[in-house]
Design goal:
324 residues, 10 strands, 13% strand
Amino acid sequence: MDEEAKKTLINFPKIKLNDGTMHPSIGFGTYKVGFIPASASATTAGGSVKVERTAKECVSDALAVGYRFLDCAEFYGNESEVGLAIAGSGVDRSDMYLASKVWTTTIEGGPEAVRAQVEKTLSDLGTDYLDLCCIHWPVPGKHVEAYKELQNLRMEGKIVSLGLSNYAVEDYLELMDGSGVTVAPSVNQIEINPFLYRKNTLDFFTGKGVALQSYRSLRDGKAFGHPLLVEIADRLGKSTAQVLGRWCVQKGFIYIPKSVKKERMLENAAVFDFELSADDMERMDALTTPEAIETFKGLYRKCVNRDTTKDGTLEGVKMDITND
């Protein structure tokens, strides 16, 4: 392996969060790595899902090539395997940034369930604290109390920074209006890429001092053949994955690529040695269609109650949110 590439990855820039801590600008995503959750989109759609390698193998490779931020979650179902990779990596805990998220079922279960899950995550990952813990979806009527329990765990030193995932503007406002919410979230993890560039939402959170983590930064590889991306990549001598990744970091978002292949892990991370022109950025910004916004709206309405006792219903779901 190229030791220079590893050194570069380890020393990638960091972003200062609103709580004063430093967050790596790039991380390794562990969703569908070694395990496919039962309610994952590909599974529920009846598609063929193949697990190529274990999470331990993939995360071991990610740490070996230089990734230090691992994006984990209860829902991903692989935190114990991730923990095995961490234990065998030889990387000091102080050099790592470990993040997790509590799932909808736990959020619905209330504060005690949230506490129990965080304790389980700590045990599975083999650590006594999380650098970041997020509410995975704003479960109606439940997410504020779940967040308040994360505040308690933060006061006990088990969590450093608090975060959100998949929160709309209106969910954030509801949270911040909640009685007993005293610590503002530092992060909101949402889908961000040129094909779902919700500028008003992004500008709102940035204006509130909330850093934005991007998932599906590479659109699961589904856009690698897009003519505009191919044109830019060919001109710059880069891959389309690198063009998408560069767009993300150039916007100031935290970039979380995922791959089960070591060579792709390195390729995906090589986004700090070039820049996209203002024209390229503008043309990529324009790739989001009205249809993509409508798809997002449907997914949001479906997922806030996902796996809970209200799964399949719109009970409590906000029907009028900031979509763009």
